[in-house]
Design a protein that fits this description.
Helix content is 40%, strand content 14%. With 221 residues, the protein is α+β, with helices and mostly antiparallel strands. It has a single domain (35-199), classed as 3-Layer(aba) Sandwich (NADH Oxidase), CATH 3.40.109.10.
Length: 221
């Protein structure tokens, strides 16, 4: 398609064997990705975080509105404020908000309302979604915001894993305290809180099995 505003697609067709090899290698790499709750305080190069976020920002979005902001927190005082506020919400969740069924499903993961990793990790990345943008005081609507930001969050988790870092998808609910602590504008709503760093040397994760191919794929041929 030719016309003003379009450029040629930069695309190199790989051979079938190259494609399968790349797909299999990526699959095997992602099989090693695990959610981590025991983080080291070892520092992480800021440039690695920057590169991962910019990779995440390449995700597709409705009408190319890119309705996201990535807030990167390394400040100790802010991390402490976030931990205190998150633990207050999580305490309420574990002591009344969550159903008995939910609490039972969480038992194998040995989680509770205490979240010390929010202070330990070198970085917290908080993704905010923007239902609309503000341009010169005027609202400009964004489209498929939740879907778009969800895709960007997935890209970010993959980028950080490929870089050699561990992550946790943390969703204290409600999360409005993040907007207050970080002084974000009214058109931004917290979507996901991601602690990022290295796992501790003695880190353990729950023993689990992912669903098999026949459980997740339905072929129509």
């Amino acid at each position: 398609m030719n016309g003003e505003g379009f450029i040629p697609l930069a695309f190199r067709q790989k051979s079938a064997s190259e494609m399968l090899k790349a797909a299999a290698a990526f699959h095997q790499s992602m099989e090693t990705r695990r959610t981590v709750r025991h983080f080291s305080d070892a520092p992480v190069d800021k440039n690695i975080i920057r590169e991962a976020i910019m990779a995440a920002s390449s995700a597709p979005s409705g009408a190319h509105k890119q309705p996201w902001t990535f807030c990167v927190v390394s400040n100790l005082d802010l991390k402490r404020q976030i931990r205190i506020a998150a633990e207050e919400e999580e305490y309420e969740n574990y002591h009344g908000r969550m159903s008995e069924e939910w609490l039972e499903d969480l038992k194998p993961f040995d989680t509770d309302w205490k979240k010390p990793f929010l202070e330990t990790v070198p970085y917290l990345i908080i993704i905010f979604k923007k239902p609309y943008d503000l341009v010169n005081g005027q609202k400009q609507k964004n489209y498929y915001v939740t879907e778009s930001v969800g895709l960007a969050a997935g890209f970010l988790l993959v980028a950080l894993h490929q870089a050699g870092l561990a992550t946790l998808t943390h969703t204290p609910s409600p999360m409005n305290f993040l907007q207050t602590i970080l002084e974000r504008p009214k058109n931004e709503k917290p979507f996901l809180l991601i602690p990022v760093g290295y796992p501790t040397s003695d880190c353990q994760v729950p023993k689990l099995e992912r669903k098999s191919e026949d459980q997740v794929i339905k072929w129509y041929e």
